Amino acid sequence: MSNRSIANTAFVFLSRLATGICGFILVFLIGVIVWNGMNSMNIQFLLSEASNFGASGGILYQIVGSLLLVVMASVLVMPVAIGTALFKSEYITSPALFRLSSILIYSLNGIPSVTFGIFGLIFFVNILGTGISWFVGSIILAMMMLPTIVLTTYQSVNSIPSSYRENAYALGLNKWQVIVKVLLPQSFHGAVTGLLIALARAIGETAPIMFIATAFSGITVPGSLFDPVVSLPTHILALAQQATNEAALQNAWGSSLVLLSLVLVFSVSALLSRLRLKEISQR
Amino acid sequence: MTPTPLLKVVPVSEPEFAEWSVHSEDFNVWYRDAHILNDINVRFPAKGITCIVGPSGSGKSTLIRSINRINDEVPGFLSRGSISFNGKDVYTDYKDLTILRTEIGMVFQKPCVFPKSISENVLFGVAKTRKLSRAERLILVEENLRAVSLWKEVSYRLDDSATSLSLGQQQRLCIARTLAVKPKILLLDEPTASVDPVSGRAIEELLLKLKKDYTILLVTHDLQQTKRIADHIVFLCDGEVIEQGDKAKMVTNPEHQKTKTYLSDSFCEC
Lengths: 283, 270
Ligand SMILES: Nc1ncnc2c1ncn2[C@@H]1O[C@H](COP(=O)(O)OP(=O)(O)OP(=O)(O)O)[C@@H](O)[C@H]1O
Ligand SMILES: [Mg+2]
Known about the structure:
The structure holds two protein chains of two kinds. Chain A is an all-alpha fold.
């Protein structure tokens, strides 16, 4: 065998190995969570309130709380993200500003999640005096979701051929009408895809909400914007810390399985939405 | 530099200003540093079809895209000189470009329908400012689809997506969409270049029908088409107007050798 074909074989082997390791880790993690979580999985677990510090009872309000956090975050983030993406694509003309906006968006994406949590604690809870509030948690999650959604929306606005803009201008539409009637409808799918990707990440985030939005137990549905909630990731964290309590650990596995399923739902939807997007852009 | 053509001394042989619907005076265009159009002086008569011909890259598209100022959207575009439209300078007298563009309609080379229904496409430019009643919508859709001879083909599926139409049908839909805005002038940039010959002929028939009511400026590469439908020809080469005039004169008795060569062999060494 020549050197070249040895190198080639080695490369093929290594990349297969890498893929194999990735696949193995994924299957292993999901397998362990499903295997252990299945034991506590039943309707009762999903639909009843936690009791005895989570060691018994279910996780109804943790599910509700987590969904509440991300739904509100989505409502907050969508207009801002779409606005930012359209501004970047349609209004920024100076190359320097354009680069700056890209840097800002990528930096926002790179900030560790715990930093967001500390920022929320200092700015909202301490300085603005909101107290522990699920709404503040949603604001912080929205900030974390922003860059992902801006990027996917920007990509889809930017990939609309300029002939659509020209045809609309030639019919006498002004810039705002072009945005609302031409660009938004054709890029909305990109925003939705970005939202789903961001949701899959946000719903599992613990650090940004643990100081500012959640309490551990004794909470059902928050009565106002400025009440705490319970959530799945913080519940899992708290249960896992009671390492000597068999029942609590079992419930941590169960909660993890539920969380994983929610993440999976968002990821698969994002994938489907992305495929649909591709189909549209190839028309 | 605003022209005051009514006061201008016009040579006897030339028609009165009122018959010139669009004319330019020393009009120049640059894209960044590239000088694309050089002192263009053209006159497009009202009503009838003026064909703008010339080799690729000679600036035909640039010229008509400057008339409705769609070029303003192109980064690096710069112009000097004037283009007037019925006595108003399009670069200084129109603060509101949307008004200019409803008066001057434009159809591009590649049909570009919006991913909406056929009737929504027809109404796209009309429905932008006010809500139309159902009756109004129906009338406008039928009237304009009939005007482009598309009504019979699509009347039973007005709510289907416009993207489901054939390219030739899409191009006629684009024309209908432009007519619906009720422009006074139609600019067409090679409207038959990307459709099949039969649809191309249909569009030519359509233009012959429309020329009674509209001033039509047609950019085309197709000399046979020019000879079939033009009333007036403008010959552009390398950013300059070589010659312009009636079809009869331009085809049978051009002043310039270049015009003669181009109009017979579609070849030009400029
Ligand atoms: N957006 C642009 N930026 C820079 N240069 C441009 C731009 N658009 C056109 N040009 C240049 O301007 C010149 C004239 O182009 P134009 O499109 O007006 O030619 P045309 O006569 O319409 O050609 P064709 O018959 O091939 O359509 C060409 O040299 C072209 O490369
Ligand atoms: Mg052209």
